[in-house]
Specification:
The chain is mainly alpha-helical and 154 residues long. It has a single domain, classed as Orthogonal Bundle (TerB-like), CATH 1.10.3680.10. It is built from 8 helices and no strands. Helix 6 runs antiparallel to helix 7.
Length: 154
């Protein structure tokens, strides 16, 4: 697994475009988003295949990465989450760099992970609320995202 992570860094994160930071920047945003989804997956202490599959699908939609690259990104996200001391290292980057509508999209994806197994756990809900606050997403949009997912409209 460490070789896959190293290869991901070599191919994706060390590759830059334009100003020398654009490639890193894009992949850092992808990694931070994946880490938050992994955090939601782990928050109810039940590792569900449905949640893992959905995270994979969401990252394929959210990024321009190929399936193998997404698998490597998610492996890297697992390592990052295990070594993280708080959510701030993930949310601060997203809050600083994403437009508001993209932050709302991230919150919606987190709700999708919550409901991937068919029910909402109090720990999952708390985590999504906390991330939403750290991303400075309004409470109205936080609730709207939850209802869109609950009603199957996304």
């Amino acid at each position: 697994m460490l070789d896959r992570i190293r290869r991901y860094f070599d191919r994706k994160i060390s590759i830059t475009a334009g100003d020398g930071r654009a490639g890193y920047h894009e992949h850092a945003l992808h990694l931070a988003t994946a880490c938050l989804m992994i955090e939601v997956l782990r928050s109810d202490f039940k590792d569900q295949d449905a949640e893992r599959q959905l995270i994979n699908e969401l990252m394929l939609q959210f990024t321009d990465l190929q399936p193998q690259e997404v698998a490597e990104l998610l492996d890297l996200a697992e390592v990052e989450v295990k070594n993280a001391s708080s959510l701030f290292q993930f949310t601060s980057l997203l809050d600083r760099e994403l437009e508001y509508q993209d932050k709302v999209r991230v919150v919606t994806m987190l709700w999708q992970v919550v409901y991937a197994d068919g029910h909402k756990d109090k720990y999952e809900e708390h985590l999504v609320r906390k991330v939403s606050d750290l991303l400075h997403v309004s409470h109205t949009d936080y609730i709207r995202c939850r209802h869109l997912v609950e009603d199957g409209k996304v």
